[in-house]
Amino acid sequence: MTRVAYYIDSHGFGHSTRSICLASHFPKDWDLVIKTNGPRWLFQEELLIDFEFQPSELDVHPIQSEGYRIDIDATGEFLLEKLNRSEQLIENEMDWLRDQKIDLVLSDISPLAIESAHRCGVPCYGISNFTWHWIMEPFFTDGPQSQAIRFLEEMMGRATANFRLPFSVPEVYPGPSIETPLLTRLPRKPRERTRREFGMGTDLPYVLITFGGLDRPDRDLRVLEKFSPIQFVRTLSSSERRMRSAEQFLERDREIENLWHYVHPELYHPDLVGVVDAVITKPGYGILSETMALGTPLLLDTRDDFREFDVVKEVLDKYPQVQFLPSDRMERLDFEKELNEILSVERKVWEGPANGAEFILERIQ
């Protein structure tokens, strides 16, 4: 029996969903402990193997303000607070690793977890398309925060190996990294079957719209009516869906004729991405990997404050079914021209392999 501790960052769902994909392929004799501040329900619903679940104090990531914009001042304070406690956090984690007899550590993407495992002599692997020191480096070019960034970089460099996923550049990791295929979940059911289950019309285009800030009270979604006959789909939160306990999957909005709400308590997101005709969202690994693996057209908000965005744009500019929209226009839901274009062009299939889980586990074993 191999006892595995998997540290998963709670900044967005992308870290969790790709980790679920990898863990789903674990050998049967691996005993899994998930350490994360991500939502327990997501792992309970989608990870179809036994696991223990524990919160983690080791997250080090940017703090967001409105929507999904980075609050640099709050991020700097959080970074210093975490790094000021780093030695105690590492010592506590080393005690836990020894007490739990952990044989292997996977990290997406906690430098403190890598450092703790390294000091214990436990094999440890980083898995991501970026690292937090690389993301935060441009914000803090001097002072104590810049020293903290260097410390994060040094810790990531102590991994046994780092697996670098697509939408990345080699310099995100310190030292060599292993270029790795797409790591993503795929639909469980055929597209036509799922569309029938969801009650979607066969002659209408459906567009999933999902990004931070959509449900702000000051945003008037009635502007979506002008796009008819295009039908828009948004998902209720997990807690909202459980409260509804609806038997149907989609429910029409009471005021907006072409807006639908996904209300069923169970949601496997790749199935939804697989049945819609396009997705409007922000650039994040989870949704990017799911849409690109399926060739689903994609309209993306720009994220000029997030270093990852330039790399993402360079990769996705090669795909005609992907377009980018300035943030001010996305805020106004002003995307008629671009949406019609991505719906009408011929799709280009993802060029690289998508067997990231098998690739990573083969090399670790």
Overview of the structural elements:
The structure is a single chain. With about 375 residues, the protein is of the alpha/beta class. The chain has two domains: about 1-180 and about 355-365, Glycogen Phosphorylase B (Rossmann fold), CATH 3.40.50.2000; about 190-345, Glycogen Phosphorylase B (Rossmann fold, 3-Layer(aba) Sandwich). The protein has 15 helices and 14 strands. The strands form two sheets. A seven-stranded parallel β-sheet has the order 3-2-1-4-5-6-7, with helices on both faces. Strands 10-11-9-8-12-13-14 form a seven-stranded mixed β-sheet, sandwiched between helices. Helix 1 (about 15-25) links the parallel strand 1 and strand 2. Helix 5 crosses helix 7 (about 145-155). The two termini are about 15 Å apart. About 40% of the residues are buried. Mean pLDDT is about 95; it is low at about 210-220.
Order of helices and strands: EHEHEHHEHEHHEEHEEHEEHEHEHEHHH
Q: How many domain regions?
A: 2
**Treating each run of at least 4 consecutive H or I residues as one helix, how many helices?**
15
Main sheet strand line-up: 3-2-1-4-5-6-7
Using brief descriptors, characterize the structure shown:
365 residues, alpha/beta, Rossmann fold, 7-stranded parallel sheet, 15 helices, globular
Task: Break the fold down into its secondary structure elements and pairings.
Layout: E1 2-8, H1 14-23, E2 30-36, H2 40-46, E3 52-54, H3 72-84, H4 86-99, E4 104-108, H5 111-120, E5 124-128, H6 132-136, H7 143-156, E6 161-164, E7 178-179, H8 191-198, E8 206-210, E9 231-235, H9 238-244, E10 250-252, E11 259-262, H10 269-275, E12 278-281, H11 285-294, E13 298-301, H12 308-316, E14 322-325, H13 327-331, H14 336-344, H15 356-364
Parallel strand pairs: 1-2, 1-4, 2-3, 4-5, 5-6, 6-7, 8-9, 8-12, 9-11, 12-13, 13-14
Antiparallel strand pairs: 10-11
Helix pairs in contact: 3-7, 4-5, 5-7, 8-10
